[in-house]
Every structure is written in structure tokens, then in C-alpha cells.
């Protein structure tokens, strides 16, 4: 039953992926500027520009380029970077672990902060701790990540003479230094997601705690932990999982600025450089990777529904 459900969800996702590929292929070409002219910035000969454009296949009709790109992408070939002249898949393979690790840490930090704090705020509704937590959540949603990252770099350097490690530290060279280097950017990325998840956890848990079966559990004399965690949180967590699935694109989007500020050689920083250079194959490849990741995450979220709540059927 689960396999059939996943197959049906994948079939539904195919049209979404096709629409996304059309958008991914079109938008980079709407960016002002020409990649060929940037590559030949010191050359003003129209002949050289036309020859390079023909060599790169940029002189063909738009729809022909799109169909050829889709065909290659379906075979796992995302083309070559216009600047490095290396396969995009190879470039992404070197940078993807950094971005994936950063996004994973940010997600874990968001969950570790949001769920316990949200449960505490709901269990102590309208108490001082509840008001403090809600105020911190609003602050976390309001503060931009790039501003917080700048403060965490500048202020410790001014006050204590400390600043984050510059230059990427590989895990195999220095495991502790690598984790420390990734941890601070991950905390910055996870703050906004933690605030949103905490608010939803608190709201949904308060709604569940007002249900009749929870009152029955209280009347039976069950401990507070059993009532809140076993009877309340499990039924309140499904919307939280849904929101977590929608938070992933925001976390991935935030890595563009964070990787640039902290000098991490991830996919997002590679995308930032590619946009400046009008490197169309790289821009298309990175965005296609992000879209595919979001579709797979939403599929995993849907599959978790029935695991968390047996009343849900496929």
C-alpha cells in the first residue's frame, strides 16, 4: 500500500517538475547581461562573439535549447560550466556535501529548539516563560539572517578579538574544527525556522490539549508528561512536520548568503558566483537540484503522516 502511494505521488510530481524545469531554464536568460560578452570582455570583435555563442549552442532557438537540456538532464547530464569548462554534475558533487551538511545541521537545530520550547510554552500557557518564549519567537522571525551573521562576526572580533575560522576546514583534516566552523552558520540558519516551528508547535498542542480525550487522560490521573507528550504532542506534530517540509526551501535559500559571508565552498555560493557570471548551465543545474530535493522532501513528509497518525490512510 505504501509503495503504491509513493508511486502515485511521484507521478503527480512529474508535471510539477516539468513546469519547474521550464521556469529554471527561462529565468536565468532574463538576467540582464550576456554570458558570451562577459567571457570576451576584452574583445570587441563581433566575429569572436558569434563564434563562441555558436560553440556554446546559445545561437539556437530557445525551445530547441530547452528540449536538448531536458533530454540531457534526464540522463544525468547537466552540461558544462561556461567558465570552468567542467561538468556541472562534477562541480555540484564537490560542493553538495557542504550545503547538505549545513542544511541538515540547521534543520536539527531548529527541531531541537522548537519542539521542546513549544511544548513548554503550551504546558505553561500564559505564564512568564510562555511570554518570554513567544517574544523570542517573534524576534527570531524578525531578525534577518544576514544581519545576525554579520553581528556574530563583527561584535566578537571587536569585544574579544575572536572571529570565525576563515578558509574551509575539511572534516578529514580536522573533525572538531570542521564541526565548529559549520555550527555557527547552522545556528543562524536554524533560528528563523525554529521560531516558526515553535509557534506552530505551541498553537497546535494547545488545541489538542483542549480535546475531550485529553481531559479524560487528566481525569484518569495520568502524569503530566504522559498526557502532554504521549496524548498531546503526537497528535499535534503533523502540522509541524508539514511546516518543516516547507521550511527546507527557505533554509536552502538562506545558505546563499550564509555561505558567502562565512566563505563556505557550497552549492549556494557556487550559484551566487554563477549568477554574476551568467553561467546558465550552473544556474539551471543548481535550481533543478533544489526543486527535485523539495519534491522528494514533500513526498517523505506525506509518507510520515500515516506513520505518525494511524488514522490517516493512503
Can you offer a commentary on this structure?
It is a single chain. The chain has 314 residues and is mainly alpha-helical. It has helices at residues 2-26, 35-39, 46-56, 62-74, 88-123, 128-142, 145-159, 175-209, 212-219, 224-262, 267-277, 280-308. It folds into 2 domains: 21-74, no CATH class; 96-271, Orthogonal Bundle (MetI-like fold), CATH 1.10.3720. It is built from 12 helices and no strands. α1 (2-26) packs antiparallel against α12. It is globular, with a radius of gyration of 24 Å. The relative contact order is 0.15. The mean pLDDT is 78.
Low-confidence sequence ranges: none
Radius of gyration: 24 Å
Level of helix content? over 70%
What is the helix tally?
12
The run of helices and strands is HHHHHHHHHHHH
> What structural category arises from helix and sheet content?
mainly alpha
How many DSSP E strands?
Answer: 0
Averaged pLDDT:
78
Helix/strand layout:
Layout lengths: L1 H25 L8 H5 L6 H11 L5 H13 L13 H36 L4 H15 L2 H15 L15 H35 L2 H8 L4 H39 L4 H11 L2 H29 L6
